[in-house]
Amino acid sequence: MEDISTEPDGLEPEREPFDEREFVLLPLAETDLDGLAIHESGRIVFANQALGRLCGYAPGELLAVPILDLIAPDSRALFSRRESDERGCRYEALALRRDGQPVEVELSATSVRFQGRPCRLASFRDIREPKRSRQALEEIAYHHQTLMDTCPDAIVLSDLQGRMLVANEQAARAAGCASVDEFLALGRNVFDIVVPEERDRVLENTRKVLAGQTIRAEYEITRKDGNRYPVEISSSLVRDAAGEPRGFLGIVREISERKKAEQEQERLREKIRQAQKLESLGVLAGGIAHDFNSLLLGIVGNASLARTELPPESASRSHVEQIEKIGLHAAELTRQLLAFAGKGSLYVEACDLSGLAQETVDLLRVSIPARVELRLELARPIPLIEADPVQLRQVIMNLVYNAAEATSPRGGWVTIRTGEGAAPRDDPPGCTTFLEPPRGSCVFLEVSDEGCGMDEPTLRRIFDPFFSTKRSGRGLGLAVLLGIVRRHTGAVQVCSQPGRGSTFRVVFCNRDQRPSR
After folding, report:
1. Which of 18, 163, 366, 479 sees the fewest Cβ atoms within 10 Å?
2. Domain boundaries, the chain
3. What is the pLDDT of residues 310-320, one digit of tens each?
4. Domain with residues 349-509, CATH architecture
5. pTM of the full predicted structure?
6. What does the alpha-carbon distance between residue 269 and residue 294 come to, in Å, rounded to a whole number?
């Protein structure tokens, strides 16, 4: 069609200033995935096809439609407030489809010139799918974090250099930190939290994990305050989507209680083994002593008869007397074996343990070397116990003699102490209890020295018959002591360490607490 101008000849028609944005905007508008609308005074003067598809309109139907018709009622106040801002803005709102369904969109608004007039450009970006994806990711992250935080074990994710990247609350608490952020802010290397003496084993296990193995191993690790505690760590390799190694996943379980339980089980097993050993030795010693005593009876009896029939001037009389004398010494040995086996005679009466200790120590002072100082710490009054006083004196004598012999040649002290209290139920380090301790209120005799002490192997064998660390000893003193204590249903606790002396505590049941026979 021919263009007819109404302007005077020779004059150019008046044109609006050229707007580069308009020139660029129009060709690109139809290729944009976002819905675009240019509106003037609230009415749409341009809309691309993407906006029509988003809001359910056919091409061209949006022209002259009020822009507010494309905004859901709940978002119109927000839209109007943002449109009054000349600066560009971006925010989330609800668009409105032709069928009345709201659509979650991200709106961007800015001022433009269109066809020479000032207008506003609104961009509608559909965020339903991205938002669903983001919510799904947030839900996955939430469940992942919930799983980590509700897991009773500590979980740590590190890179291949051992730098910790992710951890749960249990890991933070195990390390002595108030929060995961504090724990990660320490910047500790997973290899460095293991105590130095175990790091070679950590590196060896790490090589196995890099080779594809899942390793479960026990270590000692250090807390933030420097304290150590035992853990069991299950380590596995973390790979990316391409299968390349990216880090390590460690599940850390504190096993302090398990270790204590294992130690307690081992302690109980050791007590059972000790009791079985002592019982077996007692049966053996009792059998030998009984049979040996029968033989000695014939030897000593016949020697005594031969001695009475020999004249005093006979050269053989002295030999027969020697046989009789040695036989009587051998009979004493059998009595000690029977005492260990718990088969000796027992004459029970009410006994004051402090009084017996005082009397026995007074008798022993003349036979104890002068370099040894005897100290008495006797409780008075003290509950009575039912016991054989002769055998209790034997117990006190054996303990004091052993303690005196253990002191240094330069001298030392031996303390004899009595008191009342509950029997020891648990053994501290360096202590072992022999026999089952009585329950309830008990009376104890304790003999301590500052001598050479004993190592653990020696401590386990001190009550074995014929075991002795002294060259001249027969190894029956403590064995007899244990037999006497067993007959009195008591217990013995021995605490000793090399170079730190020894303490023997013998425990007897309080007479008032003793069960009726």
Report:
1. 366
2. 20-126, 145-254, 259-340, 349-509
3. 887 787 877 77
4. 2-Layer Sandwich (3.30)
5. 0.44
6. 37
